[in-house]
Predict the 3D structure of the following.
Amino acid sequence: MLNDSISCPICYSKDCSLVNKYSSKESAEIICPPTRNKDRFKRLVKVIEDLWQQDHCEIYRCSNCKFGFAIPFLGGNEKYYSILHEQMGYPKWRWEYSLALKEINGTNNARIVDIGAGEGNFLLDLPSNFDRYAIESSSTTIGKLAKNGIKGHKSIEDLEGQFDYFCMFQVLEHISESEVVIQSISERLKTNGKLILSVPDADAMFKQEEILNHPDMPPNHINKWSKESLQILLNRHQLEITDFQFEKKSLKKVIPRVHLRLLANASKPKRIESWIYKIKNKPIRVFFLSIIFPFVLLELLPHFNYLMKGGAFYLVAKKVA
């Protein structure tokens, strides 16, 4: 259903359709079903409602540039992510790190910034002669980065001078101020400097909900990027795409995707998964989940091609004069 009062945040088109609507409780239970941890679930609901200033959000998609976005158009705040990270940590490695290292290979004495660096796993794999910087919102994380020789800052605005590379690995989908962020990066990139970026693919995220019943839910992810929408944004700030790749198919994708279906099932009180997630002892919980895993996989066999398909894309954009 079209809503001509809503404009796309990227291309400004009014041709935006309502895709779905979620309550604050639905948003919270995707992260932590109440059957798993009732207190944590309630805290998430409270933080989400405080952020939205209401008890629901809507998801729209632009027909012009294929960008998907949430209304209210607000990313999670530090309080939201502190609750999120009680259960989820930073990944040790991502598939796109290898592509980024290949892109950077052969560069000497470069100045590089990783936005949303976590504990610096990617930066630590760079040559020691790189001048390494990170942007992170947590003072605790910045302290950990400093111990590894990485200069941490809370904002791009705190950076001084020009840089050879900026990296953002699956970060932009969390940020409502994407226009400001990309502009700030462009202003600090040297001519011919590069932005290396990855995001979940919009089509894959909408497919995830359709097949796995697990929405790509705000306020964690408030943007769903297509190549078209990202190209519009980058070009507006003198950034030209020089490399673009979709994540490749892999059998390694199957288990995490079935796990998403298990989590979605756990939000339904009558499903056995909701009872399993009540088990506090992790090894015992994992044991019972492993028993029902083959049955859930069997349900999803008609979609096995999707289960293996990559869910993100990677690109390199060069700063042009």
User: Anything to note?
Assistant: The two ends are 41 Å apart (CA to CA). Residues 95-249+313-319 form a domain with the Rossmann fold fold (CATH 3.40.50.150). The mean pLDDT is 92.
